[in-house]
Every structure is written in structure tokens, then in C-alpha cells.
Write a structure and sequence with these properties.
The complex is a heterotrimer.
Chain A (H helix, E strand, L loop, with lengths): L1 H21 L3 H21 L3 H25 L12 H23 L17 H10 L2 H22 L4
Chain B lengths: L1 H6 L3 H21 L3 H26 L3 H31 L13
Chain C lengths: L1 H31 L5 H25 L6 E11 L2 E9 L1 H24 L6 H20 L3 H19 L6 H32 L4 H9 L6 H17 L8 H4 L5 H10 L4 H8 L1 H5 L2 H23 L4 H21 L3 H28 L17 H15 L5 H16 L1 H26 L7 H6 L5 H16 L14 H16 L8 H28 L12 H7 L4 H48 L6 H21 L1
Antiparallel strand pairs in C: 1-2
Classes of the chains: A mainly alpha, B mainly alpha, C mainly alpha.
């Protein structure tokens, strides 16, 4: 059952990801990336990380992608006027990515995967567990990331502000 | 155990999927000249890594991996906020989001 | 035994304080000299030396002549079997040197306050002077050759700094460089000697070296080479043939420097070093022969040159070289304590003579040419009297200091070889002659300078005359520390040093005591010869009122002597010029052709590759990403293949 679900989700993920790259209209790219993120959230659910799946949808689909969408609309890029690269560069890009894929697969094949526990321990994705981890073991990175966020926010406002 | 195993997705498949997604992201970066699309491809790459982390976390029964995903999300959000702000100000100056226009910073 | 430990523990503190005071003086004047007034810096420097003198004197009184004080400060170099500690050794020999350094040094410091008054480098002068005293103390107090070497190099440095004290004059700077380079040649010998010692004995400690050397046969090649190399160092520092030419030029420095460094203390370092290593020298008779020959030759050679010099300080400089030659001759004859004795008395009267000449120069506002002096006796009485006493002392008229020490050496020379005795006696006569030539030309007859200078002649301040008077007193009575046994006294000085020199004395059993009548004859001869030369000088320069001829009027031998036998010119032709030609050759062949080519080739390759690689930096982001991905691929492929 979960294998079939995995296949379906994976195919959807791959197709939407490819469409992000190959679509000529930036708006379509954005929409298909949102779709891609939803399928990834589906994968998370499949892996028993329900809380993460929800956060993923809120942060990525809700916040980040909306930001992208706004930018595309703000810059009025909803056209197919984007200058494209020459054909041989495109071919080179595809070949390079393919080579990287082959090489990665080849190197990953030789790695040993650690012993895994079946069935999944369904509790690890609970809010409680992740919360405890986050506020005990990872308290310092958590606080530091809040500072990072704040500086990013200030930076974004400073940069996007119109110069007088 | 064998019957149970057929009901579960082998770990290798996640490896394969996220590698593929990562390569698609790379390809996008190489392929496109629009800076926004390139940033989106970077998001794609980050997500492929997230997926793998969650998979490893689930298979090893340890929630550390999921915590890492949180932090990656934090970094990604910050990056997108700053990156898009940069893009907007660049667009204001050169009226384009083509990265090849921005080749003054050389030699 | 417990008494000794108790006594030593009481003496260690003053022992460590001795070198500390000048160091503190140096640091205060060197670091804060700017903020202090001139007179204070001078007094700080002088008092630091005085305090050292007091400490030295305290130890001198409390340490018996058989004792030696060891102060180990810390373990300096420790490597496998090699152990060199940084420590001090205070024994009678060191104490004699220390008393001379601090005693004469203090007087000269005092004198300098008056002499350097009004010089813009006043503070710098005293800073360097204190540093010199500190290094000189390290030299004589070190418990091994390496500590001695630190002092050895340090005094060389201070000598360089003080010769070139008036660094705005290029000729003075050249003199300073000459002194430094000449000393370097000697120092190389010293260094090699130390390496030899380390290699053969595994230690640089005086006691250990002497002990191990005694195990070797007399005249073994190891000992001969070590002693010869050390002697090369001594010829450099103590201005002996062939490295003596720097000392006359070193008179470029202020006169107190000439008195302290180039007459009383630093130049005697070579003698101290040989006396300190008397055991290994006694075991190498061949080296002693060389030392004696070099000493005798220097003594005669410098005395001859001294006869014709017209610069008041140059005469004294050649006299110093000559007297040092006399000391080396004594060492070469195995009379170590006699050499030290002459060192002490020489320090008194030569410092006196230099300070006196400084007073004369001061009175004449920088005039150094004796042809432009004369008749000064009426104007500067104290200087005249003290200078006269110094001249008598160096000439060897009893009972002044020089007589006893010189006579002792002459007696030893007579025992050893009549030829050496004859040469040394002739040199002594010459010394008496040129010293009184100096005295008569400077202080007698009429003044030969301009009227303008004559008006301004004045006696120096009491700060300068008091040291002169004290040194004159020492020049009169200094000889009594070593009254010869022929008059029925015990030789105090020799007794005092016996713990140091006894070991070598046993090795050299050839000491035959002269019979007393012979010794009386020798003394009478020496005194009569000295008086005769003085009278001849009086006749020539006082009665006949002769004057040294002008430079151009000289011919033949006199001209050669006046020009110092053209030794400088000879060194220039034989060593400097060929070296210059050789280095010019290397400049063209090696430097320009090979090294420049290599360097330029490297620069060209770097430039070319830079020009090529610059093209990669196109500014095209897409290309950069491509390069990055390609790099990742290559990395993975490599990882897979290996």
C-alpha cells in the first residue's frame, strides 16, 4: 500500500519539479513548485512526520512561495519574454546534471545504510518529542536561528526599501 | 519480515528520489537565466535534502533529523527573504532579472 | 665546610647585584632618558656603577683568595648530553677585573658628566656606557665560555655604538664599522674555538674544560687548535697583529670611551680570556710561542708607529696597542699573573692619560694635533701634573705603577729568551720617548695655536679633574700591590691570583728563578734606558724646540712610519680589493645572469598564468555554476576511482 503511495507521490514530485525548470512562464514555475512542495509534504506524512508536514506546508507553500509569487507579480514577469540560453548550453546543462546524478548514484551505491527499525516508531514525529528535542538539546541553535531571522528581516526591509 | 518489508518503502528509494530531485535543481540552476527561477531551484535542492533527512530520521527512529529540517527551513526562509529583497533592488537598477546582465564584478 | 656555605650564601646576593646595577641604569636611561633631565641621567649611570663597585669591594673583602663563588642562575641550554648553564663564577681573577672595570669605570663615568656636558647625545652616551659595563661584567663573570661570549659580543656592540657616537660624521661611522668587522673576524675564531671545545670536551664550563684538557697529552693537536682559535678571538678584541688596525681608528669616539673601552677594559678582554684558560694554554706550548711572537711583534711595531704620530689620541692608541702586545708577550711566556698585573696598572695610567688628553682637547675646543699645542702647562695645571704622572708611570720609572709590572714582564722575558727581552726593552724605550715627546710638545714651550684658541684655554671642571687626580694617585701607588720578591717582599698580586694560575704553573716547570744580582742589573738597565729616552725627548723637543715636520715634508722611512707602514693600504690591496673584484664578478655572473634570470622567470610564469586564468573570471554566473558542478563531478569520480 505505502509503496504504491510512494510511487504515485514520487512521480508527481518529479514531474512538477521538472516543470519548474522547463516552464517558460515564471508564474507556472511558481505554481508547479507549490504543487511539488505539497507532494513532498505527502512524503513526510508517509514517513510519519505529520507535524513536519504541516509546518512544511505553512512555511514553504504558505510563506516562501507566496513571497515568490508576490515578487513575480511585483516585477511583472508574467510573460514568456525571458531571454533563454542558447541551445548548446541547455544541452550541456542537462548532460552535466545527468552526469552528476549518475556519479551520485554510483557513489551512494557503495555506501552502507545503517540498520533501520521496522516498523516505524510512530511517536518520533509528534510535536511533543520534537519540541522536547528542540528546547533541550538544540536550544542554542534555536535561539541563534531567531537572531538570524531577525537580521534577515531587517536586511530584507533595508534592501527592498526605495532609496530616497 | 519479508511480507512486512513489502509493505514498507525501501530506504534506497528515498535516496534515489532525493538525489534525482537534487539533480533537477542543479539542472535548473544551469539551465535558466532568470534569477527567480534559479532561487526556486535552490529551494528544490534544499527540499530534496530535507526529504532525505526526514527519511533517515524515520528509518533510524531518531527525531534529530526532523529537528535539522526545522533549522534548514529557518535558513531557507531567511535566505529567500534576503534574496528576493536583493532581487527587487537589482531589478530596480537594471530592469531585468537576468543573471548574465550582472557581470560587472570581474577582474 | 659549613662556614664556606654560609659565607657563600651571604655573598651570592651582592654577586648577583653587580651586573644588575648597570643593567638597571641602562634600562632607566634607555627607556625613560627622554623624560629625565641631563644631569640626572649622568648621575644615575655613574651611581649604578658605583653601587656595583661597592658590591665588588664587599665580595673582595669577604672572599678568601682561595675561594670561588659559583652562582648558577638557570639552566640555559639543555640537549642530550650537552648542558650549559647561565651562571656566574666569581674568583680572584674575576674580582681583579671587576674592581678595575667598576673602579676605573666609575671614575670615567664621573669624568664623562663633565666632558660630555652640552652634547646633544648626553643621555644616549650614558645609556651605552652602562650597557657596556653590563656586558663587560658578563664577560668577566660568566662561568663558562658561552656566557663570556655573550659579554664578548656585547662589548663589541657597545664599542661599535660608542665609536660611531657622533654618527653624523661619516669618517667616524667608517671607524665604527671597521672596529666591528675586525672584531667579527676575531669572534669567528672564538666561536670556532668554542665549537671545537664542545666537540672534544662536551662542555664549555671553565673547570670542566680544564679538567678534561689535563687528560690530553701536552701539545696535542686538539688543544693547539682550540687555543689558536681562541687566540684569534683575542687578537681581534685586544688589537694585536694582524687585527690591530681598528684600535687607532676607534679614537673617533668620545675620549672617555677611548679611555674606558679602548684602553682600560674591553681591549683587555683577550688577556682576561687567555688567563682564564691558562691551563689549556699551558698545555699547548706551540700556541704560547705564537702568542709570545705576536705580542712581541705588536709591541715593537706599534711603538715604532707611535713615534711619529701627531694626533694626541693616536699616540695614546698606538701606545695602548703596544702595551697590550707587552701583556700578550707576558702571557706567551707563561707569566699569566704578570700579564694581569700589567693589565691592572695599565688600566690606571692609560685611563689617566686618555682622560688627560681629553681634558687637553676640551681646553682647546676639540684640537687634537700636538703641532698646534704647546705651553699648556701654565694654563691647565691639574691636567698637566696628572698627565705627567701618567707618562712617568707608563715609562717605567720607579716607584710608579708601570715600573713594577713592566719590570716583572721584562725579567720573565729575560729568563725565557734574550731576544724577546731585547725587543721588549727597545719598545719600552720607545714608549718612554714618545710619551715624553707628547708631554713636551703639549705642555712646554710656547703655544702654537691661533690667538683665538689661546684666549679660551681653561682648566676643566672639578668633575673632570677629580677622576684625574684619583687615577694619578692610583698610577703612583698601584704598583705596590705587586712588589717584586727581589726586594724582599711577597708578591701580593701573584699570591692573590695563585688559585687561578697555579694549575698552569705546575705544568710549566721551566720557571728558573733568576739570581738577584742579575735581576738588579736588569732593573737598573731598564730604568736607565727609560730615563735616557726621556732625557733625549727633553733635549729634542724642549731644549732644541724641534717640531714634528709637516706631513708632506716627510721622506723615506719616516714617511712610512708616519703612514703606519701602510698597513691599512696593504689590507685594502690584499684583501678588500680582490674581494671587491670577486663580488663584482659574482654580481655579473651569478646575480645578474643566473639568479635574476630565475627570479624573472618565476615572475614571468606567474604573470602569464595570471593573464590566462583571468579569462576564466568572466563574471558570468552561469559559467561559475557550471564550473562548480563540474568540480563536484570530478571530486566524486575521483572518490569512486580511488
Amino acid at each position: 500500500m505505502s509503496q504504491y503511495l510512494f510511487f504515485t507521490l514520487s512521480i508527481l514530485t518529479i514531474i512538477s519539479a521538472l516543470y519548474v525548470v522547463f516552464s517558460r512562464n515564471p508564474m507556472h514555475s511558481v505554481l508547479s513548485l507549490i504543487f511539488c512542495f505539497f507532494t513532498i509534504a505527502g512524503h513526510y506524512v508517509l514517513l510519519n512526520a505529520q507535524f513536519l508536514a504541516i509546518v512544511h506546508i505553512i512555511v514553504y507553500a504558505g510563506a516562501i512561495m507566496v513571497l515568490f509569487l508576490f515578487t513575480v507579480m511585483l516585477l511583472n514577469l508574467n510573460k514568456e519574454t525571458e531571454p533563454h540560453k542558447t541551445n548548446w548550453i541547455k544541452i550541456a546543462a542537462v548532460i552535466a546534471a545527468g552526469m552528476l546524478f549518475l556519479v551520485l548514484i554510483a557513489s551512494l551505491k557503495s555506501t552502507e545504510l545503517g540498520p533501520f527499525h521496522l516498523p516505524y516508531r510512530s511517536t518520533i514525529g509528534f510535536v511533543q518529542n520534537i519540541g522536547i528535542k528542540l528546547f533541550t538539546d538544540y536550544l542554542l541553535p534555536f535561539e541563534v536561528s531567531s537572531i538570524l531571522f531577525m537580521s534577515a528581516m531587517i536586511g530584507a526591509v533595508m534592501l527592498a526599501k526605495k532609496e530616497k | 519480515m519479508k511480507e512486512v518489508a513489502t509493505n514498507y518503502v525501501p530506504q534506497n528509494w528515498y535516496l534515489l528520489l532525493s538525489t534525482f530531485l537534487f539533480c533537477v535543481g542543479i539542472m535548473g540552476v544551469l539551465f535558466r537565466r532568470n534569477a527567480i527561477i534559479i532561487m526556486m531551484c535552490i529551494e528544490l535542492m534544499l527540499n530534496s535534502v530535507n526529504l532525505l533527512l526526514v527519511a533517515f530520521s524515520a528509518y533510524s527512529g531518531n527525531s534529530d533529523g526532523q529537528v535539522f529540517v526545522f533549522f534548514i527551513m529557518v535558513v531557507a526562509a531567511a535566505e529567500v527573504a534576503v534574496g528576493l529583497a536583493l532581487l527587487v533592488s537589482i531589478y530596480r537598477n537594471v530592469a531585468s532579472t537576468d543573471i548574465n546582465v550582472l557581470n560587472k564584478l570581474k577582474w | 665546610m659549613t662556614d664556606q656555605i654560609l659565607r657563600d650564601s651571604l655573598l651570592i646576593t651582592p654577586g648577583m647585584l653587580i651586573p644588575l646595577f648597570p643593567l638597571i641604569g641602562f634600562l632607566i636611561n634607555g627607556l625613560f632618558g627622554k623624560y629625565l633631565s641631563k644631569s640626572i641621567t649622568g648621575w644615575i649611570a655613574s651611581i649604578s656603577v658605583l653601587l656595583s663597585f661597592i658590591c665588588t669591594f664587599y665580595i673582595f673583602i669577604n672572599l678568601p683568595s682561595t675561594g670561588a663563588l659559583h652562582i648558577d642562575l638557570f639552566n640555559w641550554i639543555s640537549y642530550s648530553t650537552l648542558n650549559i648553564s647561565f651562571g656566574f663564577l666569581i674568583d680572584p681573577l674575576t674580582l681583579v677585573m671587576l674592581l678595575v672595570i667598576t673602579g676605573v669605570g666609575f671614575l670615567i663615568h664621573l669624568y664623562s658628566i663633565g666632558y660630555m656636558h652640552g652634547d646633544e647625545g648626553f643621555t644616549r652616551f650614558f645609556t651605552h656606557l652602562n650597557l657596556f659595563i653590563f656586558f663587560m661584567m658578563l664577560l668577566v663573570m660568566g662561568s663558562n665560555y658561552l656566557v663570556m661570549f655573550i659579554g664578548w659580543e656585547g662589548v663589541g656592540l657597545c664599542s661599535y655604538l660608542l665609536i660611531g657616537f657622533w654618527f653624523k660624521n661619516d669618517a667616524y661611522n667608517d671607524a665604527a664599522k671597521k672596529a666591528f668587522i675586525m672584531n667579527r673576524i676575531g669572534d669567528l675564531g672564538f666561536l670556532l674555538g668554542m665549537f671545537f671545545m664542545l666537540f672534544n670536551f662536551g662542555s664549555l664550563d671553565y673547570a670542566v674544560v680544564a679538567q678534561k684538557a689535563l687528560l690530553l697529552p701536552v701539545g696535542s693537536s686538539i688543544l693547539v687548535s682550540i687555543t689558536l682559535l681562541l687566540f684569534v678571538g683575542a687578537t681581534g678584541k685586544s688589537a694585536q697583529i694582524p687585527l690591530y688596525t681598528w684600535l687607532p681608528d676607534a679614537m673617533a669616539g668620545p675620549t672617555p670611551v677611548s679611555a674606558l673601552i679602548h684602553a682600560a677594559t674591553m681591549v683587555t678582554a683577550g688577556i682576561y680570556m687567555i688567563v682564564r684558560s691558562n691551563v689549556i694554554y699551558a698545555l699547548a706550548p706551540f700556541t704560547l710561542e705564537i702568542v709570545a711572537i705576536v705580542g712581541v711583534a705588536t709591541c715593537l711595531f706599534a711603538a715604532i708607529i707611535g713615534l711619529m704620530q701627531n694626533d694626541i689620541k693616536k699616540v695614546l692608541a698606538y701606545s695602548t696597542v703596544s702595551q697590550l702586545g707587552l701583556m700578550f708577550a707576558a702571557l706567551g711566556l707563561g707569566a699569566f699573573s704578570s700579564g694581569m698585573f700589567h693589565l691592572v696598572t695599565h688600566a690606571f695610567f692609560k685611563a689617566l692619560l686618555f682622560l688627560g688628553s681629553g681634558s687637553v682637547i676640551h681646553a682647546l675646543h676639540g684640537e687634537q694635533d700636538i703641532r698646534k699645542m704647546g705651553g699648556l702647562r701654565k694654563y691647565i695645571k691639574v691636567t698637566y701634573i696628572t698627565f705627567f704622572i701618567g707618562a712617568i708611570a707608563i715609562s717605567g720609572i720607579p716607584p710608579f705603577a708601570g715600573f713594577f709590572s713592566k719590570d716583572e714582564i721584562l725579567a720573565k722575558a729575560f729568563e725565557h729568551s734574550k731576544v724577546i727581552w731585547a725587543i721588549l726593552s727597545i719598545s719600552s724605550m720607545m714608549t718612554a720617548f714618545y710619551m715624553f715627546r707628547l708631554v713636551y710638545l703639549t705642555f712646554f714651550n710656547d703655544f702654537r695655536g691661533t690667538e683665538e684658541t689661546k684666549k679660551h684655554i681653561h682648566e676643566s671642571s672639578s668633575l673632570m679633574t677629580i677622576p684625574l687626580i684619583v687615577l694619578a694617585g692610583l698610577s703612583i701607588i698601584g704598583g705596590f700591590i705587586g712588589l717584586p720578591s727581589v726586594f724582599g717582599f711577597t708578591h701580593q698580586f701573584q699570591m692573590y691570583l695563585s688559585s687561578v694560575t697555579d694549575a698552569s704553573k705546575e705544568l710549566m716547570k721551566e720557571n728558573i728563578e733568576l739570581n738577584h744580582s742579575m735581576e738588579y742589573i736588569l732593573i737598573a738597565t731598564a730604568v736607565i734606558a727609560a730615563i735616557a729616552s726621556i732625557l733625549y725627548a727633553r733635549f729634542k723637543y724642549f731644549t732644541k724646540k724641534e717640531q714634528p715636520s709637516e706631513d708632506i715634508a716627510l721622506v723615506g722611512f719616516e714617511k712610512a712610519v708616519y703612514n703606519k707602514f701602510y698597513v691599512d693600504e696593504m689590507y685594502d690591496t690584499v684583501i678588500v680589493k680582490p674581494l671587491k673584484v670577486l663580488s663584482d664578478l659574482f654580481l655579473v655572473l651569478v646575480d645578474k645572469l643566473i639568479i635574476d634570470l630565475l627570479v624573472n622567470a618565476v615572475a614571468w610564469v606567474v604573470g602569464l598564468s595570471g593573464r590566462m586564468l583571468r579569462l576564466v573570471q568572466s563574471g558570468n554566473t552561469g559559467f561559475y555554476v557550471f564550473a562548480m558542478v563540474f568540480g563536484i563531478i570530478v571530486l566524486f569520480v575521483i572518490r569512486l576511482l580511488i
